[in-house]
Amino acid sequence: MKIRFASTSYILAILAVAGSMSGCQLEPASTTPISPPMVPQVKSALTIETDPACVEELNLDATGSALVFNNPQLLRDAFPLSRTLRQLVATSGSAGTAEAMLSSALNTYLSPAETNLVSGLTIPVDRRPAEAALDARTLLTRMFPVAIFNRIDLRSTDNQDCGEYRIIYARPRQRGPRGGSRMLYIFEARYPNPSPELGDNGCLPIAEFFGELGGGELSDNERVTRLRDFFYDGVTVDGVALEPVLHFDHFQGDLGQVRTNNFIMEGSAGPPKWQLRELRTSVVNGVPSFVADTAKGVPMAELFGGNFSGQDRATFRDMRTRFQTEFVASQIAQLLKPEIENAVLPEDIITGITTTIGAEFFEFQSDSDGNLDDPLASSQRPGSNGLLGRIEAAIPLVLSSADSGITGEMVLNRMGAMTCGGCHRYSAGRPIAPGVTWPNDLNFVHVDEAGNLSEALTEVFLPTRKVLLEGLLCPPLNGDGPDAEPEPAPQPEPAPQPEPAPQPEPAPQPEPAPQPEPVPQPESPSSGGESTPLPPADIPGNNDGDGTNDDTGSAQDEDEQSPERRRRRRPRR
Asked: What is the pTM assigned to this prediction?
């Protein structure tokens, strides 16, 4: 990946633009610190190089099983929600039940506020009594799996994990207005890198597992069996033991979480909103539970502008000033990274957008409905401090161009698309660059109860993930890819040495006395008068004709067993 470093003049110019910006009694549920801290993701299809012959042989389908398996009928018996939750309880180190753990998730909907543990700010959240009133025991039997996703593209830059592996569960749709009540739980497990010392190559066995899953030789039933084994029992790939995906600890950090996306009509207090939240696992009072977590990557909408309804308004005002300053100084460049990296195609622009917003600014809920959580709408409310105008002024500085066609509204539309609510609904169809709009969802979801996929997935995100997976499985063979050995650093030429001083010629020595001639020996019949050559098998490095090399075979075996030398292999087809 090519990393651009901003010049001092650019930073000073951005800071100059930014510098012109002039209780409840319930205990919040999220009282367990998050670990490890956030690590930004920088995977980009723009920088991927591959071996074309390998890619052709691999023959991956962007909507195929290497990236998504979305047949609810086949998944239903293999991935019951009750078994998934029992596995989390069993790996928690504490006693509990699947029903109690699901009940703890539903209880988070009763809290009127949560505390961001990084900033210490207590943030109001919506109480959702309709969701809280659902019966956990009934949901255990009624919710069913609709899809499994491979998100190896989310592996972090520090190589400590190999991304996320997800199961999406849905409650059967209930009839009613706006399509009726709906609820989806997405179990997004962060998977530790089995060999972090190998960097990206440590994730190769997982990539090979999914590469083979996408092969044409397997039936769908065989694919489901392999997925079930990987998620619940663990598998071994090329001698590397891969632990089960589903583990209590895999839902505790920055990448691992359970995401909820719901719209429950029955029993709601007023018109309900489509809303997304995040949960993580925690042992609470000795019981394995779910607790509310911040929606990662989703800053509070009021930071862009609008009234904060929490109690600590002075702390929030200071935070908003700091956020807006940092947004102009650093996040505009992240949101415009596709243009900085010379992206042209719409899919490269859409998938190249990113943010690195600090966790102290994160919210606990993200609305897909309306515009309350929309950064563009918020930037036109009191407290925005002219943020939109400052973004407009910064764009030419970031892009070193005054005629890019990118507007402040487009930048904030990109920011909205990075949030849960924007990606799932309100950003659809909005302009993010000249002639480029954000792709469509599937009515507030990206995979529905029947396993159907959204346009955003099929046309943009899954094809990009396919390229990223190919980059891991099929690195270029010309030595320029991520697998290439680094070239040795050039050695400095040795300093010239002074010529030695001339030495005096030695004195002439007397000639030696003549020696008597040796007595002739009889000729050996076996010598033939010539030396006997070594047999071919004894010549170092010689191939003895059966395709093996006796001199180098053991060294090759050692290289393959050494984790530092293990190279990327093509998946078995």
From this structure: 0.79
